[in-house]
Amino acid sequence: MFITFEGGEGSGKTTQIEMLKAHFVRHGHEVITTREPGGTPEAEKIRDLLVQREGGNWTPLAEVMLFFTARHMHVETKIKPALREGSIVICDRFTDSTIAYQGYGHGFDLQILNDIKTMSIGDFEPDITFILDIDVKDGLARAGKRMANHDDATTEDRFERLKTDFHERLRQGYLSIANHHPQRCIVLDATQNIEDVHSQIISAIQL
Ligand code: Z5A
């Protein structure tokens, strides 16, 4: 099973992924957690180019192709092999992030995005995607707290520094993705407390 977590800044993806992993381990499942951009040594190098403040001033097309280059490596060399070995794979962000951030957020042409996606990873899709939906101001406040508490996050802030109206488009983009893919996307109210969100994830997974 390939499970992805999506949502805006500070929506609680990392928190829920750790709890879900612990649940699977308690029930005797093999599970790996990974993230995008990144997840393999090569893709982590590309991550630095994309999310570090000084990573580079990419044109929109170059940025999209970097995300999909990293994703292609991640899918082919880590995710698919782990799934073939019977592991559950939980990934922090995947293609929906590109559709939401670069497409809905920055206005990159959605049809071209889909064409690049097909070229890079074919029709490979998550089995389940949890979209953690949170009011933009609440999410940014949470992400800000996290950045204040973690030294390693201080320069990975290219996206956090974008304006509030961008984050609003992003949120609507995620809701639109969920509408288009009701069979795999589950939207959760991320303003609930951590345990309540976790319980809803467990009910949806039923493993
Ligand atoms: N990006 C892109 O543009 N295109 C793409 O294709 C991809 C990515 C793949 C890196 O993401 C950036 O790359 C990202 C999009 C872009 N832009 N940004 N920013 P990332 O995943 O590395 O970073 P992130 O999305 O900002 O993650 P985050 O800030 O760590 O958020 P989170 O993992 O969703 O939240 P968290 O760390 O679990 O929780 C944040 C805080 O809230 C923390 O203190 C928690 O204890 C607290 N929390 C969590 N849940 C709750 C609840 N329910 N109540 C109260 N407090 C809570």
Number of domains: 1
Beta-strand residue fraction: 5-15%
Helix content: 55-70%
CATH class: Alpha Beta
Largest sheet: 5 strands, parallel
Keywords:
single chain; 207 residues; alpha/beta; Rossmann fold; globular; binds ligand Z5A
Kindly summarize this structure in a few lines.
By secondary structure, the chain is α/β, with parallel strands linked by helices. The protein has helices at 13-26, 41-51, 60-84, 95-105, 110-121, 136-149, 164-180, 194-205; strands at 2-7, 31-35, 88-92, 128-133, 185-189. It is 56% helix and 13% strand.
Write the layout of secondary structure elements.
Blueprint: E1 2-7, H1 13-26, E2 31-35, H2 41-51, H3 60-84, E3 88-92, H4 95-105, H5 110-121, E4 128-133, H6 136-149, H7 164-180, E5 185-189, H8 194-205
Parallel strand pairs: 1-3, 1-4, 2-3, 4-5
